[in-house]
Design goal:
The chain is α/β, with parallel strands linked by helices. Helix content is about 25%, strand content about 20%. The chain has two domains: about 230 residues, no CATH class; about 110 residues, no CATH class. It is elongated and about 90 Å long.
Length: about 375
């Protein structure tokens, strides 16, 4: 064995065994930090991806990792890289490696270990650390609260499990794990990033999601276009200012725990209730102009080369109307819209290809129904 190989095989980056846990999984223990009441007054957080070694304006904030995992994966691979930067802030929440309900149990355990290991490592370097707690279903309760001493200050986030857009909340799932956390850890304080549910008990410190976002992290010198980007000023006709809008992620905190696909889809307005039904069901409704619409609920799976996508709940609406002239000739006007409520696809799938093939399939399956309805109506007329 060469010296280089020996150093690699015995390094802490390989073994990760310098922090000894007391449970059967040997999950590292994050020591209780020394915190007082003043540490939690007017508390705001800052995302890890917004921290900067030259930052002089937000050092009174605590650093959080309620981000997509890829934004802080280097914390695990190169834990020393950001130590000096993190030391400058008020405190650091342990990295929130995701524990989604759909994850393989081994991955859930692994991410719990990584959360605690990084927290214990930060603490060993003199950083004040607050454990971030996440959980999956009841099967994770044996390990997801380990490595946190009783009476610790902990942090949770309700953002991912709260109602937003067309997704229902996942409150029942969250509260079940939250109550188990209270039982096992008996936390002194609970930092809650985003609005707490009314049923949450304990000494909760609410941290406003909006006020902790990048929009309120004022730097000494902001972009001259900042007021246009934030909507304070209306866009002007200038080639120097090009504002692109569209598929924009609302900040970066849409991750963490609960379902990886978000809460169940629900109607946002009464007219969307026609999208609820069993696969194969066809619903007949009218739009606001009185035009007849046929909505078919479809569940399908399709393989494109090595990529798999499954459209779990897909809705296609085919509105049509007919006009008859004085000679008795009937003209049929047909329009088509496609609404995909929930999708599950591999990262390499082509969204446009999926949409085109789906629309083609749905139009083909609905065409027969439309024609038969028109013929039936014309005969009865």
């Amino acid at each position: 064995m060469t010296e280089e190989n020996r150093e690699y095989r015995t390094s802490q980056i390989m073994l990760r065994n310098q922090f000894h846990g007391k449970d059967k999984f040997k999950i590292p223990i994050i020591p209780k930090g020394n915190f007082g009441d003043k540490d939690f007054q007017n508390l705001l957080l800052i995302g890890f991806d917004r921290t900067n070694i030259r930052d002089e304006h937000h050092l009174n904030r605590m650093v959080h990792f309620f981000l997509y995992d890829y934004k802080f994966e280097r914390i695990w691979k190169k834990p020393d890289y950001d130590i000096e930067k993190l030391k400058r802030y008020r405190a650091v929440l342990s990295p929130d490696f995701s524990i989604y309900r759909e994850m393989n149990p081994s991955m859930q355990l692994y991410n719990t270990f990584r959360n605690r290991w990084c927290g214990a490592y930060f603490a060993s370097k003199g950083i004040r650390v607050i454990p971030t707690v996440s959980w999956g279903d009841e099967n994770t309760f044996d390990f997801c609260f380990k490595g946190i001493p009783k009476g610790s200050v902990v942090a949770v986030s309700t953002y991912m499990v709260s109602e937003h857009g067309n997704h229902a909340d996942q409150k029942d799932f969250f509260l079940k794990g939250y109550r188990e956390m209270l039982r096992q850890i008996e936390p002194e304080r609970i930092i809650c990033y985003n609005t707490p549910f009314p049923e949450m008990e304990g000494n909760i410190i609410f941290v406003d999601y909006e006020l902790s976002s990048w929009k309120y992290q004022n730097h000494s010198k902001s972009s001259k276009y900042a007021k246009y980007l934030t909507g304070q000023l209306s866009p002007v006709k200038s080639r120097a200012i090009l504002i692109k809008r569209g598929y924009v992620f609302p900040q970066q905190e849409e991750k963490g725990m609960g379902s990886a696909y978000g809460g169940e889809w629900k109607p946002k307005k009464p007219d969307d209730e026609r999208f609820i039904g069993k696969p194969g069901e066809i619903k007949t409704t009218k739009d606001k102009n009185g035009n007849l619409r046929l909505t078919k609920i479809v569940k399908m799976a399709k393989r494109f080369q090595n990529d798999i996508f499954r459209i779990t709940v897909t809705h296609a609406t085919i509105p049509y109307r007919t006009t008859t002239n004085q000679s008795g000739n009937t003209t049929i006007f047909i329009g088509a819209t496609l609404k995909i409520i929930g999708t599950e696809m591999s990262p390499n799938s082509n969204n446009m290809e999926v949409t085109i093939w789906t629309l083609f399939f749905l139009l083909a399956t609905l065409w027969k129904t439309i024609v038969l309805n028109l013929l039936r109506n014309s005969r009865t007329a």
